[in-house]
Amino acid sequence: NRQILLASRPKGEPSAENFKLVETPVAPLADGQVLVRHHFLSLDPYMRGRMSDAKSYAAPQPLDQVMIGGTAGEVVESKNPHFKAGDKVVGMGGWQEYAVVDADQRGVLQKVDTTHVPLSAYLGAVGMPGVTGWYGLVKIIAPKAGETVVVSSAAGAVGGAVGQLAKARGCRVVGIAGGPDKCRSVVEELGFDECIDYRQFTDLKAMSGALKAACPDGIDGYFENVGGMLLDAVMLRANAFARIAMCGMIAGYNGEPIPMTLPQLILTNRMKVEGFIVSEHMEAWPEALKELGTLVATGKLKYRETVAQGIANAPEAFFGLLKGKNQGKQLVKLV
Ligand code: NDP
């Protein structure tokens, strides 16, 4: 069983020396346990936070242990009456090829139906990223038909779902993403009305000018994945009573300062700004997954995947995710 451990904590950008690849034999199963062969590992921006021991909403990843991570795979052996060999499952198996799971613990392993939804989608559009998008949009922004919703990191796993869910609710949807290829795909494949390539704009005035052109009626909802200048630019175009779902601040995950220079606009625009962590809202997951699962199964929710091959390539793919090399959900294929 090849595994990737956290070897050291990064200062600034993470690098290969922060990880260590090891091979360990799979332990025999005890009663209640299940052996899962991972087919896909999910790579997610939150992992950068876990690599650090700074104060956060979650405890840091311990050193010299298998990196935390969402996984999708197949049961190969079971000493648990609720699982049998061949079951497709998702869990938090970590950066490794196999996991021995104490499957009686509530929620550690979920069986999934791959008849209409591919296994990998349970780590993306019909999994944590999809639910994140659903929660921030539906519960925080709560858009009305005809309103304008802006989404940053629009070509990503979360952002792509947000925009399509907002379109389905009758909104005008404008994405923000890095580079012309991503912007083209966000409009042509995901169906956003427009997408702004933020890399073309180095100053606030130019960025907010681009938003003004794309959002002639102002901005009613903003799904924030990035922070910094993009947030300020949106604030300058926000309508009265606009809502901001604070989902991610990836511009600051390597420790860069991400100043918010216009907080007075929250007051003058009477805005609601709400941060959330999706795993703290488990009550919303069934409703969200029902909508997301139906939309994916019927082909109405499109999603993209960037797939690295083999566990040894997980660190490189993770660095790519933090630099925007991915389009849609970043996965590692393990089988
Ligand atoms: P993505 O698939 O969106 O991948 C990350 C993307 O971030 C990159 O592709 C890149 O896209 C963009 N990015 C990286 N650095 C910068 C930067 N400096 N400025 C602007 N954009 C940057 O990841 P996810 O969809 O998985 O996650 C999106 C966001 O949602 C993240 O911030 C994540 O932390 C957050 N999140 C929050 C959760 C919660 O519970 N609150 C749960 C899950 C995710 P580009 O090329 O467009 O720059």
TrEMBL record:
Q: Which UniProt keywords apply?
A: Oxidoreductase
Q: List each copy of the Enoyl reductase (ER) domain by range.
A: 15-332
Q: Which SUPFAM superfamilies match?
A: GroES-like, NAD(P)-binding Rossmann-fold domains
Species this chain originates from: Scleromatobacter humisilvae
Q: Which PANTHER family match?
A: PROSTAGLANDIN REDUCTASE, PROSTAGLANDIN REDUCTASE 1
Fetch the Pfam families from UniProt.
ADH_N_2, ADH_zinc_N
SMART domains given for it?
A: PKS_ER
List, alphabetically, the CDD domains matched: PGDH (cd05288)
Q: Which GO terms describe its molecular function?
A: oxidoreductase activity, acting on the CH-CH group of donors, NAD or NADP as acceptor
Record InterPro entries: ADH-like_C, ADH_N_2, ER, GroES-like_sf, MDR_fam, NAD(P)-bd_dom_sf
- In Swiss-Prot or TrEMBL terms, this protein is called NADP-dependent oxidoreductase
UniProt keyword Oxidoreductase, yes or no: yes
